[in-house]
Amino acid sequence: MIKWSIGSSGTPADSYYEVRSDCTDDVPKSKFKIKAGKTLSVRKWQAAFSTDGCLDIASVLSRIQKGGVHPTVRGEVWEFLLGCFDPRSTFDEREEIRQIRRLQYARWKEDCREMDSHVGSGKVITAPLITEDGRPIKDPLVLLEATSSQNTSDSASTSSKNGNVDDSATRITDKHIIDWKLTLHQIGILWPIVSFTFILHFTPLPISYENFKPMIGLDVLRTDRTMVFYENKENLSKLWDILAVYAWIDKDVGYCQGMSDLCSPMIVLLKDEADAFWCFEKLMRRLRGNFKCTDQSVGVANQLQYLASIIQVLDPKLHDHLETLGGGDYLFAFRMFMVLFRREVSFGDSLYLWEMMWALEYDPDIFFAACEDASAHKSKISRSKLRGVRHFGKRDKENAKNGAEDTEGPVPISVFMVASVLKEKREKLLLEARGLDDLIRILNDVNGNLDAKKACAGALKLHKKYLRKWKALMKPEEALVIDGWVLRLQETVAQLRPPAGIG
């Protein structure tokens, strides 16, 4: 049995991600260390490929679950974990796919550059679009009116010279282009990533442009600003360009605050901008629903409901206490779900945490899911995953008894991760929290202090306990499937568990 020896020799994960000398006191300290024999090393990674390039994904996942990925090969590994490539593909097949994707990204970027010359300029734009008298443009109708008059004049000039109207002159009047340009330069919905007052006292906001604030440019300048990597302006512009292109191609969601935190690691890990974009795009396929907030609900509502159900079943006393405090909707966990614990742990530890979750949730069909329309592939994905990773509310009990299908798919392991954080703070919450302010104060202590390894181990233990309760409601033949999954979890938990008396 492999055990994790917390505190034994090893290279700190953050040693590969240099922090500016003037910021060393401002960043969380890494608690995860790279250890020989546990972390997926360069040698183990290369040995996992056959002569023609097919990847033994099972051995890779097992190694990642034991100790994460070595930073020198992390970018390559993530391309498989996120579904950029099929493990069964060859070296040549992957290179062909990579070149096709790079060309596609180049086309999208050029389309964006034609609409806005700042894209691809090597600059990060934070200034708003302004009117002729210098006032910031906040209303798309104002920009539409201004550009329409300009296009009318340009079109007349083009028509007189060429005898026809330049089609490109009319493109700027498209509403989507207008919204996109304003997202780049002026406004976008300011999601409450750090506004705990808003999160805890959530009330519908009127949808008006007065509620919009500067977005992509300012977010880029704030993202991982303590890292030496982003002292290079070229890296900042890569992040800005990728977010700008993504905002253009994702017409339903566009850009929202928090996406820069999710995209930044891709820029750090992958040198080629197009490769980084595609990793980010695959990650957003998993998470984009989190950003679909309306004036009535937040995008992570499902995860919050799952979390509430899990805590209610596994720790009813804590759940009742949180409800008494007014936190029964679990909105205090909003940020953890939105940016996947980026604010709770160091940069290096957050990468380890992500890859651990992805390895535990890995779906053999993920490559095909990433290549197809998400809605068309939804049922296939749900069937391919084990039904044990899901919420355990009243409706699920009824569904289990009646043999009903689960149409929403499995619950992400991140929900159990948040549950493990609450369990870690359980005694303090029960003894000291007498109101929402106390609740937030206690959970704020987690920021920068979360132990990624312990959080993973805690999540798996809670998941195992949850599966046992779920199994009790299942038919014998269904329970056999769960038995196999529990055995796998027991092995993983044993590998993650620190020696007795430590940690």
Automatic annotation (TrEMBL):
SUPFAM superfamilies, alphabetized: Ypt/Rab-GAP domain of gyp1p
Highest taxon above the source species: Eukaryota
GO MF, one example: GTPase activator activity
Composition-biased stretches (Low complexity): 148-160
Organism (species): Leersia perrieri
Protein name: Rab-GAP TBC domain-containing protein
InterPro entries: Rab-GAP-TBC_dom, Rab-GAP_TBC_sf
Region named Disordered: 148-167
Domain Rab-GAP TBC as annotated: residue spans: 68-361
